[in-house]
Amino acid sequence: MQYALSADNYTIFLQEYKEDHRSVIEQELMLNGEQKERLFTLLKINALEENRYYNYRFYEDNCTTRAKGIINKTAKHKRF
Q1: What is the domain extent for residue 55?
Q2: Which of 22, 27, 41, 74 would be 17's cystine partner, CB 3.0–4.6 Å?
Q3: DSSP for 41-57, written as a single string
Q4: What is the pLDDT of residue 77?
Q5: Interior/surface letters 46-72, b for 16+ CB within 10 angstroms, e for the rest
Q6: What is the pLDDT of residues 33-58, one digit of tens each?
Q7: Per-residue confidence at 75, pLDDT binned at 50, 70, 90?
Q8: Is the pTM above the cut of 0.85?
Q9: Count of domains observed in the chain
């Protein structure tokens, strides 16, 4: 299945989830300033036109595993 990453305004995203009676759980990451900058940079790179399309694989490559991979690259020595 071909998927495409999209980025939305958080307020709009949260409102849509509320309207659909879906839950959102916040997970706080203990990152320092440098790690936060790296995370933001990697997320922007992932959202570039040439990177945003991918073949969705339910267990190996999906929106959650991609986010986990970016967070792990950000934290370097930490594993989430």
Answers
A1: 28-80
A2: 22
A3: HHHHHHTSTTTSEEE-B
A4: 55
A5: beeeeeeebeeeeeeeeeeebeeebbe
A6: 999 999 999 999 999 999 999 998 99
A7: confident
A8: no
A9: 1
